[in-house]
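Protocol step 4 of 6: structure prediction from sequence.
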Amino acid sequence: MFLNKLRPNQCGSGYSVIRPVIGARGWVFYPGSSMKGLFRRACTPQQSATYCGDLAKPGILRFQGGYPIDTSWTKGLVDIVHPQQGWQVEDQSKKSSAFAQISLYKPTLRFGISSDAKDVNWEEVWQIWERAIATGLGSRVCAGYGHVETSSQTAISQGLKVLYRTRLKGQGQAPKLLDGTGEFRPNLFRAGLRGHALRLFGGLTDATTATRLVETLFGGVSGHGIVGLVGMRFQESRLTLPLFQPGTAYEQIGYEVEGELSLLLARELKNPTHEDTLKRLLAQLMQFAMVLGGFGKSWRRADHRLFFEDYYDRTKPLIGCHWQWVGEMALGRDVQVRSPEKLGGFIDKVRQTAEEWMRLQGVVPNPALAADWREAWHPRSVQVWGRVANSVDESEAIRWFHGAYRETIRGVQREGSLYQSQSAAMTGKVGQIGRLWHRMYPQVKLVMTRKDPEGKPKPRITPQFLEWLTIFPDESRECEEFLEFLQGQPYGFRRFWGEE
């Protein structure tokens, strides 16, 4: 069996580095006790008593643990954990930090189970074990670590209930490991969804309650730690890590990836009737993230390679990312915004589902108590402007980040600028999160086909894009002047959500 990433039970830390369990001769291993606990959770009560034992008598199985079969696990051991929730969503003064941990990257492990009993149903034992490991091995499985690839996809599907599944593809800047090599990290999806959940709940209740709601969904470190309801699995079908501007000062490793994203029920709901609302909430969170932004580094900007090719006439840094749905199912189901006029209703629907989930958790929504965060999603705190761009070459707003949006007219008006240093609070810079998101969202329409003129319309990607500007206004003169400029509906921009 092959594992995407596994961080086994920790044996402690030294010099702020989280370490796995170390066995004989310095080799890592997955302890038999952890193996037994995982196995027990996949058993029925009768199977658990027989195989694992109870207070009356021991079980008939012995769990020997799991070891790597070769030395490949020694490659790429150092992983980086870089939490940015507080810095990106809540308050600029909450700086982010990077932490090191030891993770096994795609090791092959051999597990041992033995018994002295003569009548063991080994076929059943291995079916239970397959079902058990489908839930993930080690810690941080909810973030995409420790998931298993086996020859039996049925076993994986039996491990955790799928709450939401879709296909998508994207490109952007790849994170770097300590040795300078690039890596695509699937947990960027979970980080993005967590951040947007925090923004949405933060616009509906106070900061403490919003944080607690997000930890219920995605886990957290409050108190003795909270195991979230939602796990994640991303199965890539295509991945490349091309170099951008190699040999220059701006050399950067990018990624181009396509695959299937699944959000899974990581633990049982206290009330099973809440599952439908949870499914709708997760689907809409994902759709919200795709409509207005992206995932990973520089997600607040559209990929300049696609929409502002002239920017790279000279050597300049890689900026932005681009994501889109893949396949007829995703294009038909997940595309909820097919025109600018649909955006407002979609955002309201997402907030209504968030409110419904809050009530199921015993929380009464109260937008009047909205969190005092920079990016709390409240109509008084955010505005979304949009238009239709006819092609990849017709993004207008992307140029405003690098040049004047309004030219100087002597004696009449001064230059309108977002890109000058004094307005960095709007566009952002290194060490400072800006107040603008820019997105080029591929427009998908439903059309009738010649082969089936009376049937159901089919989704089709058009050459057009829905160009969005999401703005979190402050009281600066630059922001006021820019919003005044947008009121004139330049290039067809109109406000589709948020108050003036």
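Step 5 (inspection) to follow. The longest strand covers residues 252-265.
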